[in-house]
Design goal:
Strand order of the largest sheet of chain B: 4-3-2-6-7-8-9-10
Radius of gyration of chain B: 26 Å
Largest interface: A-B, 22 and 25 residues
Oligomer: heterodimer
Distance between the termini of chain A: 94 Å
Largest sheet of chain B: 8 strands, mixed
Largest sheet of chain A: 5 strands, antiparallel
Helix content of chain A: 40-55%
Order of helices and strands of chain B: HEEEEHEEHHEHHHEEEHEEEEHHHE
Distance between the termini of chain B: 90 Å
Shape of chain A: elongated
Number of helices of chain A: 17
Radius of gyration of chain A: 30 Å
Number of strands of chain A: 12
Number of helices of chain B: 11
Strand content of chain B: 25-35%
Number of domains of chain A: 3
Structural class of chain A: alpha+beta
Strand order of the largest sheet of chain A: 1-2-4-5-3
């Protein structure tokens, strides 16, 4: 017990904080070098130039050796004095310092150090970092047939580049901060000065800077940590992999968060309806897009309610079944020994198993699982008399409907909240379904996203914002920014001019 | 912390109080769905109940089955039938209730109670009179489905195509209790192994007193509905030519100048019809004019006959009393009953043939 306490104090101790500064007043550089050399990927060697011995050190895993060979070592021959190094080396960032903390931090960011063995008080830091990330590739989660095919990658600077080239304006602001005691993750807050409400920006920045955590591995950590209600199954920040989506919502006055190492950005404040927008909606004609959006909302309601209603009706309300359907339902269920609830839960779980197995396995095996599961298990369970084929169709359709949700996190939520509905349907019948729905509605009414209502524009009613909610009206009618964001500049463009059309007359 | 405590309490309550939620489960395939019921008085006091229910075969076909018991009340009959049944009998999917003819002549209001009081029975079930012994008629299977569904489809289909008037428990009870209107129900018989809507039974209060035969359904429907369509009629002209027409739009209007007196009541009918069959080749304008006139006479003659028949029996299935009641403040049911048989009621029809079809 005591030992354990001691270990804890080791982390909490002021003198040696893991990953923190080293504090040794007698020989700062020497003790730094000793600590660094503990790691095998740290290299240091001595380089002789004109009878001077220069010590060069770096993390081999963090620097580009080509820069070292091409841009540093040849130029060191022209070594005159330490101060002239910055003009000799063809690299923009050459820092001369003597602070051990600064040296350590820079080394970890991909710098190499050079110092004269005879003069330990001046250390030259040269930027030679390498970024090993994958290329910008096709969006996979939010794929669209038309529209840009770029998606975020794991490198923060690339991601900011993807957004900034869509918003070439000085007002587009990036505020960067470091979060995570161990991971020291760079997190950027993106917004457009003069459009985004200061309150939203400050909320995000304040929540981020208040975070006290050791590691940030992905942007989804940030969502879970800073969203308004952390126990809600509903995500309150949208995560997206599309830079065009981020650039577009920044223009609406929203705030985006990008995290180094995460190929997904976060958007807030948002509403529940925004989770059902595919960004492709804006690339299609407004009537087509509106239809697809309505289909998606219908799919969500269908996915949540259809199995519970089946269970409720078959268990309690046989009166509700149309007389032409009775025979189909009874015949399909006559051989089944299980009550409707068990039958439904077995099938729902089977679908969840298939989905989970498909998600965990490599793509090629995953496809096989889909076929095996869909055809073999489906037909076999009907023939074995475990489930009725009517329910099989219903459950399969409900699962399909839940996959139409463009934001992956929300799709998961929808599949999860089906189960309380199912149990309540078995417990109280349709009243149970109604009760669960009321609870769901109350929960959604109470949710906020960065302090802004989650069910807007329906509650509180904002008629103007309906133009881009369940349906998407044409661009010419979207001249005002959403009320939800409380933007500083509410007009996007002049709506009158937008509706005018000028045809050049031919002579 | 307080919030968490309350959550725990609610969770605990819902676990501990499961016994208080004693809701009857009626799983669809574990109940016997009664789809039809037929009532007959075997004695002054003893009711014979025949229930029809489907027996779903594993191959998807449906077998019609019946149970017949006698008791002093209907619900006792149901208990007795449950004693003979594999699954509990439930009445929520009852589609049609039949009353044997003699029973209907005695009055059916007591038998309606069981339908009206049971909340699982809807107000839109069909009522009909059965000419024949229910036990015999219903034990035979008439379609691919059980007889309850078959009968309900039979009535529904004919109501929708406009051959007979709209009828169900709600309408029957409305007409039973409303002042100035009497109920009607279709009479069904078994004829050559088939079920057949033979006539429309006319009630005085809850007793069957008279009937309208198949041939006059057309006129009855015309008289009954304010705006009608789709009903059909075939007749012979004076030149022995046969014509079949379909009513595509008829409007019936009452003209009651002096309500609650024995002044004449006029019923104006505006019928737009098309000819769908004609036995004498092509039609020209004069021929159509002639048919229009003859159809007009036919409608006026038959309608007045029907009304006369009603007046003689002192019944009012058309709801003329109700029409009067809506036009006066001096409504008095007793006085109306005295006035009604002697009022002169005339029918004026306007007929227009809109289309005759093309034959080449």
């Amino acid at each position: 017990m005591k030992k354990w306490r001691n270990r804890r104090s080791l982390f909490k101790g002021k003198d040696i904080e893991i990953g923190g500064k080293i504090n040794s007043e007698t020989d700062p550089l020497g003790s730094l070098l000793r600590q660094l050399s503990l790691s095998n990927d740290f290299t240091q060697f001595t380089y002789h130039v004109n009878e001077t011995s220069l010590c060069i050190g770096y993390y081999t895993s963090l620097i580009d050796t080509e820069i070292l060979h091409r841009d540093v070592l040849p130029y060191l021959k022209r070594w005159e004095s330490f101060a002239s190094l910055s003009s000799v080396l063809p690299i923009e960032e050459v820092i001369i310092t003597s602070e051990p903390a600064k040296i350590q931090e820079s080394l970890l960011r991909g710098y190499l150090f050079i110092f004269n063995i005879n003069n330990l008080h001046q250390v030259c830091l040269v930027k030679a970092g390498v970024e090993r990330t994958r290329q910008v590739s096709l969006p996979e989660v939010e794929f669209s047939v038309v529209g840009p095919k770029e998606s975020f990658v794991e490198a923060l600077d690339t991601n900011i580049n993807l957004v900034r080239k869509r918003l070439p304006m000085p007002e587009f602001t990036v505020k960067e901060m470091i979060i995570g005691k161990l991971s020291k993750t760079r997190v950027s807050v993106l917004y457009i000065e003069g459009i985004a409400n200061k309150e939203n920006v400050n909320t995000v920045i304040q929540r981020l800077s208040d975070l006290d955590i050791d590691q940030i591995m992905d942007s989804s950590y940030i969502t879970q940590l800073i969203q308004d209600n952390q126990n809600s199954p509903f995500p309150q920040l949208i995560d997206t992999e599309r830079p065009d989506r981020v650039a577009s919502v920044l223009g609406e006055g929203k705030v985006a968060i990008l995290v180094d190492g995460a190929p997904h950005g976060l958007i807030g404040p948002t509403t529940i309806f925004e989770f059902f927008y595919a960004f492709e909606d804006y690339y299609l004609n407004w009537a087509v897009a509106s239809f697809f959006r309505l289909v998606r909302f219908f799919a969500v309601i269908f996915s949540i309610l259809v199995t519970p209603i089946y269970v409720a009706v078959l268990t309690y309300h046989y009166e509700l079944i149309p007389k032409d359907l009775v025979s189909t339902l009874v015949t399909s269920r006559s051989a089944i020994p299980l009550p409707p609830i068990l039958e439904a839960i077995i099938l729902e779980l089977a679908i969840e198993l298939l989905r989970e197995a498909g998600a965990r396995l490599p793509t090629k095996v995953g496809q096989t699982i889909g076929i095996v599961g869909g055809i073999v298990i489906g037909t076999a369970s009907v023939e074995a008399g475990l489930t009725s084929n009517v329910l099989l169709i219903i459950v399969a359709l409900a699962a399909l409907a839940s996959f139409t949700t463009p934001v992956y996190q929300m799709g998961n939520t929808i599949r999860l909240i089906r189960f309380p509905f199912l149990l309540m349907a078995h417990y109280l019948g349709l009243i149970g379904v109604a009760v669960s729905f009321s609870f769901l509605l109350i929960h959604l009414l109470r949710l906020t996203s960065l302090g802004r209502p989650f069910l807007e524009p329906f509650y509180p009613p904002r008629i103007q914002d309906l133009k881009d909610s369940l349906i998407r009206l044409p661009f010419s009618m979207q001249s005002k920014r959403p009320i939800q964001e409380q933007t500083e500049d509410t007009m996007r463009f002049n709506s009158k001019q937008a509706k005018e059309k000028h045809n050049t007359k031919r002579n | 912390m307080g919030k968490l405590k309350r959550m725990m309490q609610i969770l605990l309550l819902s676990v501990l109080l499961t016994g208080c939620m004693n809701i009857d489960q009626r799983i669809l395939d574990d109940v016997q769905l009664v789809t039809g019921a037929a009532y007959r008085y075997v004695d002054d006091d003893i009711i014979e109940l025949t229930t029809v229910f489907p027996n779903y075969q594993p191959d998807g076909s449906v077998k019609n089955e019946t149970l017949t018991t006698t008791a002093i009340l209907n619900k006792e009959n149901r208990d007795k039938q449950s004693l003979q049944s594999e699954k509990p009998m439930v009445s929520g999917k009852l589609e049609v209730a039949l009353y044997e003819r003699e029973t209907a002549e005695k009055g059916i209001v007591d038998l309606l109670d069981t339908l009206a009081r049971d909340p699982s029975i809807g107000a839109n079930i069909y009522l009909a009179i059965l000419d024949g012994n229910p036990k015999v008629v219903l034990s035979k299977q008439y379609g691919n489905m059980d007889n309850g569904i078959f009968l309900s489809n039979l009535i529904e289909q004919n109501v929708e195509t406009g051959l007979i008037h709209k009828t169900n428990l709600h309408i029957f009870k409305y007409k039973l209790y409303a002042e100035g209107i009497d109920p009607m129900l279709p009479i069904i018989e078994q004829k050559e192994g088939k079920l057949n809507i033979k006539a429309i039974g006319l009630f005085e209060d809850d007793k069957l007193v008279d009937q309208i035969e198949q041939e006059k359904f057309f006129f009855l429907t015309l008289l009954l509905v304010h705006k009608g369509q789709k009903d059909t009629y075939a007749f012979k002209t004076k030149e022995e030519k046969k014509v079949s027409i379909v009513n595509i739009k008829s409007v019936r209007k009452y003209d009651i100048p002096e309500p609650m007196t024995n002044a004449e009541i006029k019923i104006n009918m505006d019928v737009k019809a098309i000819i769908r069959e004609y036995s004498d080749g092509t039609l020209n304008k004069q021929k159509i004019k002639k048919i229009e006139n003859e159809l007009k006479d036919e409608i006026e003659k038959n309608s007045e006959e029907i009304i006369q028949q009603f007046q003689e029996k002192g019944i009012d299935p058309l709801g003329i009393g109700e029409e009067v009641r809506t036009r006066t403040r001096k409504w008095d049911q007793k006085k109306w009953k005295q006035l009604y048989p002697d009022i002169k009621i005339t029918v004026r029809a306007k007929v227009k043939i809109m289309e005759t079809g093309v034959i080449e």
